[in-house]
Amino acid sequence: MTDTDVKDGKRTVVEPHEGDKSNEKAPIVEVVAEGGDQVELPPPEIVETDPELTPEEAEEARKRYLLTRFWISACGYWGGTGDRLAIPFSVGLLILIVGTVGFQYGINLWNRSIFDAIEKRDSATVYHLTAIFFPLAVGSVALGIAQVFTRMSIQRRWRTWLTTSVISRWLANGRYYQLNLVGGDHKNPEYRIAEDLRVATDSPVDFIAGVTSAFLSASTFIVVLWTIGGALTITVGNSTLTIPGFLVIAAILYATIASGSIMAIGRRFVQISEDKNQAEAEFRYTLTRVRENGESIALLGGEEEERDGIDRTFSNVLRQWARLAGQHMRTTLVSQGSSLIAPVVPLLLCAPKFLDGSMTLGQVMQAASAFTIVQSAFGWLVDNYPRLADWNACARRIASLMMSLDGLERAEQADGFGRIQHGETTGEAMLSLENLSVSLDNGTAVVDETEVVVEPGERLLVAGESGSGKSTLVRAIAGLWPWGSGSVNFHPDRRLFMLPQRPYVPSGTLRRAVAYPGSEESWDDKEIGVALHKVGLDHLKEKIEEDAPWDQTLSGGEKQRLAFARLLLHNPDIVVLDEATSALDEKSQNKMMEMLMKELPKATIVSVAHRAELEAYHSRKITLERRKGGAKLVSDIDLIRRKGKRRLLGRFLRNRRPSRKA
After folding, report:
1. C-alpha dihedral over 451, 457, 463, 468, to 10 degrees?
2. Per-position DSSP letters for 485-523, written without gaps between them
3. Hey, CA dihedral for 12, 17, 18, 23, is it positive or negative?
4. Are 282 and 316 in contact (CB under 8 A)?
5. pLDDT tens digits for 139-198?
6. In Å, how far are 233, 236, 248, 362 from 241, measured between CA atoms?
7. GO cellular component terms (predicted)?
C-alpha cells in the first residue's frame, strides 16, 4: 500500500507534514536512489558468454564474472562516493601490521639473548632481559588490540556502506517486488543482504590483513633463518654436500607440502560451501513461508504437508553439512598434523650444528621461533582456505542479486522498447494510458494497446474475467510493473494511493499500522480514532497505542477496513482499489464505498473488482477480455451519463462500437 506521486517518470513518496491533519496537500519528498550522499552508478554492461564454451566452462566463466561484479560495487567504498574514513583506516591498519611484525622481530631477538644468557648462566643479563620483556609484551599486545579495532572498524563501516547501497537499490522503484516477477539467481534476497553480505565484507579485510602480515613476517624471518642457519654440510661417504640457507629451504619445502596437501584435499570446498549456503537459505525461506501463511495453513490443516516440505529442505541442509564436515575433517588432518610437527622440525635441523658447537642455544631457539613464524606465514592460506571458500560462495550470491538489480535498473534507463514510460498529462486529465501494452519480462503480452483518459473526480471500474490482466494493469499504473510499452501519465503533483487486496500491516503499534506509510506522529489519537470510527473499527480505538502482532490478530476484513482508514488520513487525489473490498460482505462493502464517496467526493477513483454491485459506486466501466495476443479493452460504458467528449481513445475498439448505459 503506497502513497506516491508520479512525476517526470519517477515515483516519489508522499510523507504527511506535521501540521497537515486536514485536507491540505502534503509535501512531496523525492526518493533518493542510493541513500544518503551516495551516487548510484550505472549498472555494468551485460557480458555475454562465449557460445563456443562448454557448459562447464560457461559456468566457470559466470562464477568469475560474479566475483568481478561484486568488486565493481564493493570497491566503491574506497572511491569518491565511499566512506571518507576508508583510506585513513586502511593506511592505519597497514602501519599497525608493520609495527606488529617489528615487535615480533624484537621478541625473536629477545629469545636468542635470553637463552644465550641462560646457557652461560649469566644472571645479570637474565634479569635485565626479563625487565625488557614486559615493554615488548605490552607494546605487542597494544598493537594487536589496535589492529583488531582498526580491522573490525573497516569491516563494520564497509558492511554498512555496501548494505545501505544494496538495500537502497533493492527498495527503489519497487524492485523488491519486481524481483519476484523476473527470472535469475536472486532467491532469498533478505538472507543475501543480511548474511552473505556480512561474510563478503568481513573475509576480504581479514584476508588482505592476513596476507600482508604473512608476507612481511615471511620476508623478515627468512632473512633471520638465512643469517642464523647459514649453510649445512652433509657428508655422505667420501663426498660432502653443502646446502646454503638450509633452514629457509626447509621452511619453504615444508609449507609447500602442507599447502599443496590442503589444496588437493579441499579443492571442492568452494562448491560445497556454496551448496551449504543455498540449502540454509532455502530452509529459512520454507520456515518463513509457514510463519507468513500460518492462518491459512492452520485453517486448512496443512501441518503434515508443511512438515514434509520442512523435512525435505532440512534433510538437504544436513546432507550439505555432512559434506562440509568431511572437507573440514580432511583439512584438519593436515593443519593439525602440520601444527604439531612444525615446532620440532627446526630443532632437529639445528641439532647437528648445536652439537658440534657452531650454533648456540640462543641461536637454536631463535631459529626455531623464526622457522615457526615463516611456516605459519606460508601456511596462512592453508588455515584460511575454508573461510576463503565460504567468502567465494557468499560474494557470488550477493553478486547474483546485484546482477538482477542491474537488469531492472538497465530496463529503467532504457528508452523505448520493453519499458513503460511515466510522464505528465496535459490539460485537466488526472490519468491517461497512451498506447499502453503490458508484458512479462520475457516479452509475452498480458495487456495489449490500451488507451484511456480519466478526468478529475471520475470513478472508473475495471472489469473482466479472472486472469484477464486487471491487476497487472493496476500495477503498471502504480509503476510497479515496468515491462511493456506506451506510457502512463498523471496530472502534475497529484498524489496516488494504492489499496491492494491484501493490505500490509507493519509491526509495532496500531497507530503505526493506521498511519502507514506516513509517520505515526503525523496524526493525533483523536484523528486516528475518527478514521477508525468511519470504517467501522470502533472496537480498536482504545488500542491505538498497543504494540501487538496486528498482522496476525486482525481478520482479512478488518485489514481492508484499516486500509480505508489510512486512505482517509492521507486524503490523496487519485485512489486505486485492487479488489480492496473482497474480504467484506456485501453490506459492509456498500457502507465502505458510501463512506468513501462521502469523505473523498473529489477524489479520482480507479477500481478493479469482480462484484457487479460495485457498479453503483462508479461513473464509468471498462472491460478487459483475454485474447491470444494479450488482453484487449473491449467495452467502455458510462454508468452515469456525463457531458462532454468520450474519454476513451478508440484505436483498440476499431471493430466494436462501445455500448452506453444511462
Report:
1. 40
2. EEEEEE-TT-EEEEE-SS----SSBHHHHHHTTS-GGGS
3. negative
4. yes
5. 999 999 999 999 999 999 999 999 999 999 898 888 888 887 777 778 788 888 988 899
6. 5, 8, 17, 26
7. plasma membrane
State the DSSP string of 387-398. HHHHHHHHHHHH
Torsion of CA 377, 379, 380, 386, to 10 degrees: 180
**Structure-model confidence comparison of residues 477 and 386, the more confident one:** 477
CA-CA-CA-CA torsion sign (136, 142, 146, 148): positive
Beta-carbon contacts of 129 under 8 Å, excluding residues fewer than 6 positions away, are 110, 113, 114, 117
Q: Say if residues 345 and 250 touch (Cβ distance below 8 Å).
A: yes
Nearest-10 Cα torsion for 278, 283, 284, 290: 150
DSSP letter assigned to residue 77: G
Domains belonging to the chain, first-starting first, are 174-413 (1.20.1560.10), 421-638 (3.40.50.300)
Beta strands in 263-303 (DSSP E): none
607: which strand partners? Answer: 461, 577
- The residue among 331, 127, 347 whose CA lies nearest residue 229 is 347
Alpha helices in 75-122 (DSSP H): 86-119
Q: How far apart are CA 166 and CA 74, in angstroms?
A: 10
DSSP per residue over 297-360, as a string? HHHHT-HHHHHHHHHHHHHHHHHHHHHHHHHHHHHHHHHHHHHHHTTHHHHHHHHHHHHTTSS-
* DSSP bridge pairs for 638: 620
Least-confidence region, from 11-20, 92-101, 117-126:
11-20
Please tell me what DSSP assigns to residue 540. Answer: G
Task: Assess contact for 213 and 101: CB atoms under 8 A.
Answer: yes
- Our measurement of the distance from residue 256's CA atom to the centroid of its chain's CA atoms, rounded to an integer in Å, reads 39
Length in residues, the chain:
662
**Rounded Cα distance, 201 and 418, in Å:** 35
Lowest mean pLDDT among 307-311, 380-384, 551-555, 611-615: 380-384
Closest among 109, 93, 107 to 210, alpha carbons compared = 93
| Cell numbers linked to 405 | 538489480
Q: Please, what is the average pLDDT of the chain? A: 80
CA distances from 26 to 22, 23, 522 (A): 10, 9, 11
Measured at the CA of 244, the angle between CA 242 and CA 245, to 5 degrees, comes to 140
Task: Give residue 530's identity as a one-letter amino acid code.
Answer: V
Q: Which residues, 6+ apart, have CB-to-CB distance to 471 below 8 Å?
A: 501, 578, 579, 608
Share of the chain above pLDDT 90, in %: 21
Least confident stretch, 39-48, 184-193, 277-286, 299-308:
39-48
The span from the first CA to the last CA of the chain, in angstroms, equals 34
Q: How far apart are CA 523 and CA 503, in angstroms?
A: 20
**SS3 label, residue 571:** coil
Q: Which residues contact 196 (CB under 8 A, 6 or more apart)?
A: 277, 394, 395, 397, 398
Q: CA–CA separation, 350 vs 228, rounded Å?
A: 10
pTM here?
0.67
